[in-house]
């Protein structure tokens, strides 16, 4: 189809039709279908039966056809992923058992193992709690010692400051008195000496005679 618009419309109709047929054969025939479609623009559309996945379909295809869809490196990686998934599932089950869930199917040996694990965990928790308590007490004692030392230093500084202040006041008062005395002496020294002579207001009677 030369016209791009017509080609896009035709692709959309045929794609929807193929996906519809894949769904029908999955439901009617109980078949496992995986469908992957890439448009000319590179956009991907896919459909897979609800009971499976594209990876499972490709894995089955690889085993039955004998064709290698990926190399040994990817296969080892896939095996590692499966192994990790199994370990994770096992850890989830053990965690539920430790919480007391789903233990009705366990035998006596399994229950004893869970009890031992819980006792070990509780012992570790108590040890950690004791260590934290000792650390808190040690830090509190250090804080109290530092506080007492600071109080002593402040009291010492206060006493010394008061003594210095009194000393400064005494020295200042003495210096002030000396300064005042020196100023008074200098002022008296600078004053001129005046000689006063008293003249009689009445002439001497002897002169009149």
What features would you describe in this structure?
The longest helix has 83 residues, at 108-190. The N and C termini lie far apart (173 Å). It is elongated and about 115 Å long. It has helices at 4-29, 54-65, 72-98, 108-190, 205-208, and strands at residues 34-38, 44-48. The chain is mainly alpha-helical and 209 residues long. Strand 1 (34-38) and strand 2 (44-48) form a beta hairpin. It has 5 helices and 2 strands. Residues 74-160 form the K-box domain.
Short description:
The chain has a two-stranded antiparallel ribbon. The chain has 3 domains: 69 residues, SRF-like, CATH 3.40.1810.10; 36 residues; 56 residues.
Ordered list of secondary-structure elements with their pairings:
Blueprint (H helix, E strand, L loop, with lengths): L3 H26 L4 E5 L5 E5 L5 H12 L6 H27 L9 H83 L14 H4 L1
Antiparallel strand pairs: 1-2
């Amino acid at each position: 189809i030369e016209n791009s618009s017509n080609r896009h419309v035709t692709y959309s109709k045929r794609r929807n039709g193929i996906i519809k047929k894949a769904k029908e054969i999955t439901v009617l025939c109980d078949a496992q279908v995986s469908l992957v479609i890439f448009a000319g623009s590179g956009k991907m559309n896919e459909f897979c039966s609800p009971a499976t996945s594209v990876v499972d379909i490709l894995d089955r295809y690889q085993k039955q056809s004998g064709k290698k869809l990926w190399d040994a490196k990817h296969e080892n990686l896939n095996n590692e992923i499966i192994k990790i998934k199994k370990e994770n599932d096992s850890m989830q089950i053990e965690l539920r058992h430790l919480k007391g869930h789903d233990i009705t199917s366990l035998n006596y040996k399994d229950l004893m193992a869970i009890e031992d694990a819980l006792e070990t965990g509780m012992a570790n928790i108590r040890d950690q709690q004791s260590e934290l308590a000792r650390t808190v007490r040690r830090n509190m004692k250090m804080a109290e010692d530092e506080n007492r030392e600071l109080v002593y230093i402040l009291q010492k500084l206060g006493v010394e400051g008061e003594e210095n202040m009194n000393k400064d006041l005494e020295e200042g008062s003495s210096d002030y008195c000396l300064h005042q005395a020196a100023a008074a002496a200098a002022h008296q020294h600078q004053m001129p000496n005046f000689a006063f002579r008293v003249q009689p207001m009445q002439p001497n009677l002897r002169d009149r005679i």
